[in-house]
Amino acid sequence: MFVLVEMTDTVRIPPWQFERKLNESIAEELNKKLANKVVYNVGLCICLYDITKLEDSYIFPGDGASHTKVHFRYVVFHPFLDEILIGQIKSCSQDGVHVSLGFFDDIVIPPESLQQPAKFDEAEQVWVWEYETEEGAHDLYMDTGEEIRFRVVDETFVDTSPTGPSSAEASTSNATEEVQKKEAPYTLVGSISEPGLGLLSWWTNS
Amino acid sequence: MKTNACVSSLAEVSLESAKWKLKFISAYFRRKDANAALLSNFEVFQLLTDLKQQRKESGKNKQSSGQQNLNTIMYETLKYISKTPCRYQSPETVKDFLVAMKGHKLTKAEKLQLLNHRPVTAVEIQLMVEESEERLTEEQIESLLQTVTSILPGDPEEQRRDSEMATEDKGDQV
Questions:
Q1: pTM of the prediction?
Q2: CA B150, B156, B157, B163: dihedral to nearest 10 degrees?
Q3: Are B35 and A62 a contacting pair at CB < 8 A?
Q4: Which member of B10, B24, B41 has the closest CB to residue A60?
Q5: Mean pLDDT in chain A?
Q6: What is the ipTM of this complex?
Q7: Domains in chain A, ordered, with CATH?
Q8: In this structure, are residues A141 and A92 in contact, taking their beta carbons and an 8 Å threshold?
Q9: Is B24's Cβ below 8 Å from some Cβ in A?
Q10: Cβ-count burial A10-48 (b if 16+ within 10 Å, e if not)
């Protein structure tokens, strides 16, 4: 689920923090910059693991702060393909079941990857697995808050860094009509179409 | 003209710091084997609890304005990991587990999943081990389950209940 990523960056320490130990200031700056943020094509950064190398610090003309190039390792959430994860159902919609891990919310299980046959109950807004046995069909509801075991089948990274000012006509039409749709920078697509996957309560033998 | 030169070099510096080079320690996403940089949930759990302890000890005199993101992610991740079996693990159990797994010929990613999830049924093993029908016989799956449940500690309450039931059965037999 978590990986260690080696990164390099230049950290700026303002003069009023010079009395603190350099390592501490740098660790704090790095965490301030990266914790709980998604780095494009890398994953969701959790916290600093360690600093592997500190190069010399420089002070540049016009700025009293010191700039230090740091090589460090960061703990990043980045599940590998086909990994099994356990999360909680956040909500259900026509697009599928939305699962959350607490610290990461953008996981969706599309309708075709649910245990088949499945139908969407409009009244209660939940997906239902119509499980067939010899006795008849059982309706197994996928309620909010239930723990669910799923397999990661795909991931998408979207570059959400700000683009330049859009062209004149686009801005005048967009400004009043639609709000720019906020895309999650990192989304996972899951699947529960195998035996053993789905709500934990479906597979426990008590 | 001298001031212009200073300003432009400053701009270069800020541009330089704005992009940082990323280097994966090993293979990229699609290869789930031989990824030396994988961390088990237990290691992340230890790291975060130590970090939390450190921050508590150093007191609240630090400005918390920039630290909010770190606090949030630490809290949420700890909350998530605390619900997984790794909260009962220790470095020794992880080491014993890896030693015991040597004989079973599993990939790094599969061993990691077994360590993180502590499966108790054959169905779970089949999910985590790729092509388990071809690679493992039924006895091998059973022995794998035995190894996992015996070495990795589970919920102590559940284990107590299981052992109570076992002694009850023994009593009935006698």
A1: 0.80
A2: 40
A3: no
A4: B10
A5: 87
A6: 0.84
A7: 2-77 (3.30.1490.120), 83-202 (2.40.50.140)
A8: no
A9: yes
A10: bbbbeeeeeeeebeebbbbbbbbebbbebbeebbbbbbb
